[in-house]
């Protein structure tokens, strides 16, 4: 994949936003987000037809702004809605078992550290998400913080594999991630919870 697409990777679900999530997502896309992931998790998460409709609306926005649309952990939804790719966690379906639909799509995998790297089949994986680099309030299952040095270690171990830093990224620390091996940063709350979404996006660029 084009690693520059990882530069500013926005992750969002309907319950990460107060108000209309589509307005927040469009503002982020319009102001420079380079990749978008729908991560619909937690209490009050959309399901079934409501989730399909929400994903379809996001796909329209991503097409409008020419930003690839990734879906987290739901290959069937990704295929049905015609998404540009899938992001998998360590406990999700193995990437080697994905349907042929994903043969020419973007496949991401969460790989926190060297231990998980040893256990991961990267044969079909286009990029990895590494972290949490810093403490994050957005995911209660995020795992132990690896810090900047952990991020740098992962870069050394993975060579040229495209890699995005995850977890607790802010305007004050994102540059450190780029300087220590990440091709980009992925965010939830720093954009989704911002009063001025466009301004928040621009601070990371």
TrEMBL record:
Top-tier EC class: transferase
The entry's keywords: Magnesium, Metal-binding, Thiamine biosynthesis, Transferase
Keyword Metal-binding in annotation: yes
Entry's cofactor comment: Binds 1 Mg(2+) ion per subunit.
GO cellular component: cytoplasm
CDD domains associated with the record: TMP_TenI
Pfam families: TMP-TENI
Cofactor(s) needed by this chain: Mg(2+)
Catalysed reaction equations from the record: 2-(2-carboxy-4-methylthiazol-5-yl)ethyl phosphate + 4-amino-2-methyl-5-(diphosphooxymethyl)pyrimidine + 2 H(+) = thiamine phosphate + CO2 + diphosphate; 4-methyl-5-(2-phosphooxyethyl)-thiazole + 4-amino-2-methyl-5-(diphosphooxymethyl)pyrimidine + H(+) = thiamine phosphate + diphosphate; 2-[(2R,5Z)-2-carboxy-4-methylthiazol-5(2H)-ylidene]ethyl phosphate + 4-amino-2-methyl-5-(diphosphooxymethyl)pyrimidine + 2 H(+) = thiamine phosphate + CO2 + diphosphate
Residues of the Thiamine phosphate synthase/TenI domain: 8-191
InterPro entries listed in its UniProt record: Aldolase_TIM, ThiamineP_synth_sf, ThiamineP_synth_TenI, TMP_synthase
GO biological process: thiamine biosynthetic process; thiamine diphosphate biosynthetic process
Keyword DNA repair belongs to the record: no
EC annotation from Swiss-Prot or TrEMBL: 2.5.1.3
Sequence positions that bind 4-amino-2-methyl-5-(diphosphooxymethyl)pyrimidine: 37-41, 72, 110, 139
Metabolic or biological pathway, per its Swiss-Prot or TrEMBL entry: Cofactor biosynthesis; thiamine diphosphate biosynthesis; thiamine phosphate from 4-amino-2-methyl-5-diphosphomethylpyrimidine and 4-methyl-5-(2-phosphoethyl)-thiazole: step 1/1
Family: Belongs to the thiamine-phosphate synthase family.
Function: Condenses 4-methyl-5-(beta-hydroxyethyl)thiazole monophosphate (THZ-P) and 2-methyl-4-amino-5-hydroxymethyl pyrimidine pyrophosphate (HMP-PP) to form thiamine monophosphate (TMP).
NCBIfam families reported for this sequence: thiE
Protein name: Thiamine-phosphate synthase
Gene for this chain: thiE
């Amino acid at each position: 994949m084009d690693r520059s697409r990882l530069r500013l990777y926005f992750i969002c679900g309907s319950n990460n936003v107060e108000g209309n999530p589509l307005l927040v997502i469009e503002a982020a896309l319009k102001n420079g987000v380079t990749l978008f992931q729908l991560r619909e998790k937690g209490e009050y998460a959309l399901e079934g037809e409501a989730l399909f409709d929400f994903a379809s609306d996001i796909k329209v926005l991503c097409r409008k702004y020419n930003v690839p649309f990734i879906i987290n952990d739901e290959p069937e939804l990704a295929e049905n809605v015609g998404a540009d790719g899938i992001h998998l966690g360590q406990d999700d379906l193995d990437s080697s078992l994905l349907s042929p639909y994903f043969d020419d799509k973007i496949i991401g995998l969460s790989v926190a550290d060297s231990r998980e790297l040893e256990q991961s089949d990267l044969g079909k994986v286009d990029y990895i998400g590494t972290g949490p680099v810093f403490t994050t309030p957005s995911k209660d299952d995020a795992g132990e913080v690896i810090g900047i040095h952990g991020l740098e270690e992962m870069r050394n171990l993975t060579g040229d594999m495209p890699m995005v830093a995850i977890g607790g990224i802010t305007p004050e620390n994102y540059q450190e991630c780029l300087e220590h091996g990440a091709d980009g940063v992925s965010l939830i709350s720093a954009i989704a919870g911002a009063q001025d979404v466009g301004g928040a996006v621009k601070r990371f660029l």
